[in-house]
Write a structure and sequence with these properties.
The complex is a heterodimer of chains A (250) and B (394).
Chain A (H helix, E strand, L loop, with lengths): L6 E7 L8 H10 L4 E5 L10 H13 L3 H14 L4 E4 L2 H7 L1 H11 L3 E3 L5 H14 L3 E3 L1 E2 L5 H10 L4 E4 L13 H12 L6 E4 L5 H10 L2 E4 L1 H6 L5 H13 L3
Parallel strand pairs in A: 1-2, 1-9, 2-3, 3-4, 4-5, 6-7, 7-8, 8-9
Helix pairs in contact in A: 1-3, 1-11, 3-5, 4-5
Chain B lengths: L10 E2 L2 E2 L8 H16 L1 H15 L5 E3 L1 H7 L2 E6 L9 H14 L4 E6 L3 H13 L2 E7 H6 L1 H9 L3 E5 L6 H14 L4 E3 L10 H9 L1 H14 L6 E5 L4 H7 L9 E9 L10 H4 L1 E5 L2 E5 L24 H9 L2 E7 H15 L5 H8 L11 E6 L7 H8 L2
Parallel strand pairs in B: 4-14, 5-6, 5-8, 6-7, 9-10, 9-14, 10-13
Antiparallel strand pairs in B: 1-2, 3-4, 11-12
Classes of the chains: A alpha/beta (250), B alpha/beta (394).
The complex binds pyridoxal-5'-phosphate.
Pyridoxal-5'-phosphate binds next to helix 5, helix 11 and helix 15 of chain B.
Chain lengths: 250, 394
């Protein structure tokens, strides 16, 4: 990870809007100044996601997206895109692919890490940590306002890339309501002085929420707002503006 | 502890666990830490047992079905969960969970429902306790179980249509989980079957275990032996079966038979026969058997019975299947519907279409006149009259 603050990451679903649009979108995002990518692999039952990302996953599956297809696309992507890439998705497709095969494939195509919300800490430590580490694939954990301090310390210990701080306890696509409570929470985490960088995600959708989040964290992730934009017919020409609008406070 | 029960880590053999996003962790952890001690409290037990007796109407009878027995040349006993208040076994669980929710200080209850029986049972206990209730139900199920939707609304519950995926039970469960993520503090999720992250499978099975506890005593009174040769129950997620099997698990001479819904046939592409069609995977927070593609996408199941229309089974069932302790079979829509009509005409009991699946397996068993069989009649058929009428062209 680049050592900086105000890092911007974009989440989007692989295979959406078209099966092979992943590479093209990545290039445009890199050109627009995005610092790293979070590419979602679709699952039929995405319980942590709101309607927009649910729909993109459904469409991606209809388009024929699978992990096999994605890894082929990512191989090509790496020839053109150099910012870090993290894969995000649910555990069942990874389990069927084989956790070891998944980590090996990630390594081979130059993926930096994985964010698998429903792979719990305990199972990760017990069964999979070794496989991730052998392949140098970072496993990114989520932290929410309800996560206990003790658990956050443990997550910090097990992490070696960044910690994904949820702006609120919510599914994706609920706009962050910046208020005293969220600021108190961000401050509390900042004060913990964790060894891993903090990146805030969920509910970050525009310059205002990006600015607020990056006051307290090294960066922030925009997902739903970007995926919604991909619905529009000439989205390719809008990516640059979308990113500039978010980063305009720079 | 029985090798068929959950272990300290929340697993049944390789199945179970709590595969949930961090957003659900505090709620699930709270349950994991507190459920056993709360259930064991005297005042919990007292209120639970009183409500089961005076409100649900327990014990439910164990009925010797004479004409059905004659037809199959065996001794067939029906465990009459259909006579419970609200018409199914589901209420055993919701009574237990509402008492738990109260003791956890929760103010708002959410639930998923397939056939609507669990939704009704949840709306009922929320009315009983004056708690807010939101029930998620697949759009297709809302159409095929209209009377239950009306009952929930009348009791003051809000019924929310799940519009995603197959628009049935699996998707209703997704929506309930999303609601819980978005309401992490004041809400308790009353899951309706032995599925979900640990401790739910054990929690629900414990509340349903009253079924086999009573059966053992009743069978002893009737036959002088508390152990039957066979115990049969249908399996959607598996809660009535888990309750029916519970106190027989370590009596290895009792054969446990779980009946899944084959829909139009196991290999028709329209089925919900999880053990026949599924393999190991993760859905709704637990590792179990699951109908899925080779890429790990969940396959949309099909059954004429909304309560069995689910692509997985609870982790304990996966373990009973894998260890060979239980025998898992399936019957088709047609077989179930015929068995339902047959019970109606032989015994004057209209079973829920779910329960008809268990009954339909009787036809396929090799028995003799000394064989004692208990069938869990998990629910009554009032909610299914429309379906029966259409199917038989009455
Ligand atoms: C009458 C009845 N039986 C069985 C079931 C299936 O659920 P389970 O497998 O959890 O018992 C249902 C579910 O709605 C039901 O209503």
């Amino acid at each position: 990870m680049k050592d900086s603050s105000r890092l911007l990451s974009i989440y989007y679903t692989a295979g959406y809007p078209q099966l092979h649009s992943t590479l093209n979108i990545a290039q445009k995002l890199e050109q627009a100044g995005v610092d790293f990518l979070e590419i979602g692999f679709p699952y039929s039952d995405p319980v942590a996601d709101g309607p927009v990302i649910q729909r993109s996953s459904e469409k991606a599956l209809q388009n024929g997206m699978t992990l096999d297809v994605l890894f082929k696309d990512l191989k090509k992507l790496r020839e053109h895109v150099s910012i870090p890439v993290f894969l995000m998705g649910y555990f069942n497709p990874v389990l069927q692919y084989g956790v070891e095969n998944f980590c090996k494939a990630c390594k081979e195509v130059g993926v930096n890490g994985a964010i698998i919300p429903d792979l719990p800490l305990y199972e990760y430590e017990e069964l999979y940590q070794k496989i991730f580490e052998e392949n140098e694939i970072a496993n990114i954990f989520l932290v929410t306002p309800q996560t206990s301090e003790e658990r956050i310390r443990k997550i910090d210990e097990l992490s070696n890339s960044f910690i994904y701080l949820l702006s609120s306890n919510a599914t994706t696509g609920k706009n962050l309501n910046v208020n005293d409570e969220s600021e108190k929470y961000f401050k509390r985490i900042k004060k913990m002085d964790l060894k891993n960088p903090i990146i805030i995600g969920f509910g970050i959708s525009n310059a205002e929420t990006f600015d607020k989040a990056t006051q307290y964290a090294q960066g922030a992730i925009v997902g739903t707002a970007f995926v919604r934009m991909l619905d529009e017919s000439d989205y390719e020409n809008k990516i640059d503006n979308f990113i500039k609008n978010i980063k305009r406070g720079n | 502890m029985s090798k068929y029960q959950v272990n300290q880590k929340g697993y049944y053999g390789p199945f179970g666990g709590a595969y949930i996003p961090e957003m659900l962790y505090p709620n699930v952890e709270e349950l994991q830490k507190k459920y056993l001690s709360i259930i064991q409290e005297d005042n919990f037990q007292k209120e639970f047992n009183e409500l089961l007796r005076d409100y649900v109407g327990r014990p439910s009878p164990l009925y010797y079905a004479k004409r059905l027995s004659k037809k199959y040349n065996a001794n067939i006993f029906l465990k009459r969960e259909d006579l419970n208040h609200t018409g199914a076994h589901k209420i055993n669980n919701t009574i237990g969970q509402i008492l738990l929710a109260e003791r956890l200080g929760k103010k708002r209850i959410i639930a998923e429902t397939g056939a609507g029986q669990h939704g009704v049972a949840t709306a009922t206990v929320c009315a009983l306790k004056g708690l807010e209730c939101v029930v998620y139900m697949g759009e297709i199920d809302i159409r095929r179980q209209a009377p239950n939707v009306a009952r929930m609304k009348m009791m003051g519950a809000k019924v929310v249509a799940a519009q995603s995926g197959s628009k049935t039970l699996k998707d209703a469960t997704n929506e309930a989980l999303r609601d819980w993520i978005n309401n992490p503090v004041d809400t308790h999720y009353i899951i309706g079957s032995v599925v979900g992250p640990h401790p739910y499978p054990d929690l629900v099975a414990t509340f349903q275990s009253i079924i086999s506890e009573e059966t053992k005593k009743q069978l002893f009174e009737k036959t002088g032996n508390s152990l039957p040769d066979y115990v049969l129950a249908c399996v959607g997620g598996g809660s009535n079966a888990a309750g029916m099997f519970y106190h027989f698990l370590d009596d290895e001479e009792v054969q446990l038979i779980a009946v899944e819904a084959a829909g139009h046939g196991v290999n028709s592409g329209e089925s919900a026969a999880t053990t026949a069609l599924g393999n190991e995977g993760i859905l709704h927070g637990s590792r179990s058997l699951l109908m899925q593609t080779k890429d790990g996408q969940v396959i949309e199941p099909y059954s004429i019975s909304a309560g069995l229309d689910y692509p997985g089974i609870g982790p304990q069932h996966a373990w009973l299947f894998k260890s060979g302790r239980g025998k898992y079979v399936s019957v088709t829509d047609d077989e179930a519907m015929r068995a339902g009509l047959q019970l109606t005409q032989l015994e004057g009991i209209i079973p829920a279409i779910e329960s008809s699946h268990a009954l339909a397996h009787l036809e396929k068993m090799q028995v003799d006149k000394n064989t004692n069989i208990v069938v869990c009649l998990s629910g009554r058929g009032d909610k299914d009259l429309d379906n029966y009428m259409k199917y038989f062209g009455f």
